[in-house]
Design a protein that fits this description.
The chain is of the alpha+beta class. Helix content is about 30%, strand content about 25%.
Length: about 325
């Protein structure tokens, strides 16, 4: 669901020794972790990410969230409870625009795990036009609503027995945070954790300065990654995440071109001038959730007001204006 890549700027030659880099592939994307410390923590990184996956991944049949979705258990673990709490807070603060129970709607519009629905949206012909009926929409909406779910004494209670949770819009950010926590437990003060463009940073870079992160300009459906600088973010402690709506979309006769961000309130794809949203927050999981909430907000001013009402959260929004793009920030001091 991440729609832009935040690239770590080259740090040059180190003024300090004992910097370590560990990188690899996880969750169908790459990760790269840079930290000051001679101790190899590669195995610990994989262990942390494996634990996150087995708690939160809806793509692993044996994960806790998958078993909850199939009603095989209603017990939660600490990771799922933390993620649920973040999701519920952002849902309430965004007036319902962010909702990890939205999977039935995502499937309905051909972006989810339902291969039949996806094929319907992608294979319009002369005699066939993709259509979502009011009854289909009502049925899907009856299952959506994290605000009507809760966790009590470690037990999760759903809005409906068929309500399902998909925390993918938070999971990569949460994974960054969990790796960062592991590094700190091992005495690491200076680090940068990046998973698929989501970032958790702490301390300073090799030159003893705040970490500098390049945010790429949105490029629709590039044949290969294009890193065109949009802005530079300086950060010492916190998380950065980007979400967008310009790479994953369908083109239909009935509805025109629409992206994968679905409004949990109306059930329809969001029509918004916001092309991408990059958010800085105290944690990467929070940044991840707020970036998605921005993309689900139908107008620019609502997104700006929403972020400004949230302490310690700032956003850089890329907005379409005709054939051109402009940027709007909620804080000039954070984005260069």
């Amino acid at each position: 669901m991440i729609a832009a890549i935040a690239s770590i700027l080259a740090t040059g030659c180190s003024k300090n020794k004992d910097w370590t880099v560990t990188e690899g592939v996880i969750w169908h994307t790459t990760y790269r972790i840079v930290y000051q410390g001679s101790l190899s923590l590669s195995d610990s990184v994989l262990n942390v990410l494996g634990n996150v996956e087995m708690s939160l991944s809806p793509f692993r049949d044996a994960s806790l969230v998958s078993r909850i979705n199939r009603a095989e258990t209603d017990s939660t673990d600490a990771m799922l409870r933390q993620t649920f709490d973040i999701a519920l807070h952002v849902n309430r603060a965004s007036h319902g625009r962010f909702d990890p129970t939205v999977a039935p709607l995502i499937n309905l519009w051909g972006f989810g795990t339902d291969s039949i629905a996806r094929k319907r949206a992608e294979t319009e012909g002369v005699d066939y036009s993709f259509t979502v009926t009011p009854s289909e929409l009502d049925s899907a909406l009856s299952l959506v609503g994290i605000a009507e779910c809760y966790v009590e004494n470690g037990v999760i209670h759903k809005k409906h027995p068929l309500t399902t949770f998909n925390f993918s819009a938070i999971a990569k950010g949460y994974g960054c945070d969990m790796v960062a926590e592991m590094l700190k437990r091992n005495g690491v003060e200076n680090y940068l954790v990046e998973i698929g463009g989501e970032i958790a940073a702490g301390g300073k870079n090799r030159q003893g300065n705040p970490w500098k992160i390049q945010i790429d300009a949105p490029v629709e459906n590039p044949a290969e990654p294009i890193h065109s600088r949009l802005r530079i973010i300086s950060i010492e402690n916190g998380g950065i995440a980007t979400s967008g709506n310009y790479r994953n979309f369908h083109e239909t006769r009935r509805y025109g071109k629409f992206g994968h961000t679905i409004d949990p309130l109306s059930g329809y794809p969001v029509s918004t001038p916001i092309v991408s949203a990059t958010v800085i927050a105290p944690t990467c999981a929070e940044a991840d959730a707020w970036a998605t909430a921005c993309m689900a907000t139908p107008d620019l001013q609502s997104a700006i007001d929403m972020i400004r009402n949230e302490p310690d959260v700032e956003a850089l929004l890329v907005v379409a204006k005709g054939d051109s793009l402009r940027t709007v920030t909620t804080s000039d001091c954070q984005f260069q």
